[in-house]
Amino acid sequence: PPNGFLRPEGSPLTVIAHRGASAAAPENTLVAQEIARKGGADWIENDVQPSKDGIPFVLHDGTVDRTTDGTGNIRDLTAAQIKALDAGSWFAPQYAGERVPTLAEQLADLRTRGGNLLLEIKGRHTKDEVAKIVQVIRDQQMTGRVFVQSFEVDALRYTYELAPELPLGLLRSSLDADPVAIARELHLTAYNPDGNALLAKPEIVAPLHAAGVAVMAWTMDSASLWQRLERIGVDGVITNRPSELVGWNSAF
Ligand code: G3P
Ligand code: CA
Questions:
Q1: What distance in angstroms lies between residue 116's CA and the mean position of ligand 1's atoms?
Q2: Domains and CATH numbers, the chain
Q3: pLDDT tens digits, 184-228
Q4: Which atom of ligand 1 is nearest to 122's Cα?
Q5: 68 in ligand 1 pocket by Cβ < 6 Å?
Q6: Burial class for 221, CB neighbours closer than 10 Å (0-12, 13-18, 19+)
């Protein structure tokens, strides 16, 4: 099928809110998601990892130390222990009482209030752990509004085996010699490189587009960078400042 994530020439960049509106509110919380939605972001980006008892939670780091009032590896904490943590006070007092959302809670919020999710499977996952993520997406009836991305090739392979209907993006810190080949091998809808690596080698965009693969760059927060990405034909931009990118798009 044609790739709906490809940006027609002259149309605005797709705005993807990195961990929600994470410059304005505590990352990966429902309030960061709400601010991003109100600011006009097209997609919310998150990071998903399981609790000790196998519940997919929305958290970036391998530990809860930086973004909550607790300590420890997320994989060593039960869902009940994670739910008891304050995920807002570290950012600003006004966000005291924010919780680490489960993936199910985040998707339910998007389903009822509107919005799409760029779901990052963070770190290595077993096939059973990926199956749990797929089950949550299906239970929440959000298959048509979720895009899965990961640095982990195995996680993308498992997702394709379990749910070939979900669009897939490969995150890369440095560029592959032949991005089209890996896109074909992994059934990618998007190739999602570090934005600075991409700006150093913009000639990879055209062959990806010719192969029907979109390009989404991360994590770019200034108008000068957005302009350079727009000029080289990037489709979507993952940013900590989604409402500013929405404004830049409309002035463009
Ligand atoms: O969406 C891409 C970006 O989020 C990858 O880096 O560390 O923020 O998950 P990180
Ligand atoms: Ca991420």
A1: 17
A2: 14-238 (3.20.20.190)
A3: 999 999 999 999 999 999 999 999 999 999 999 999 999 999 999
A4: 9
A5: no
A6: middle
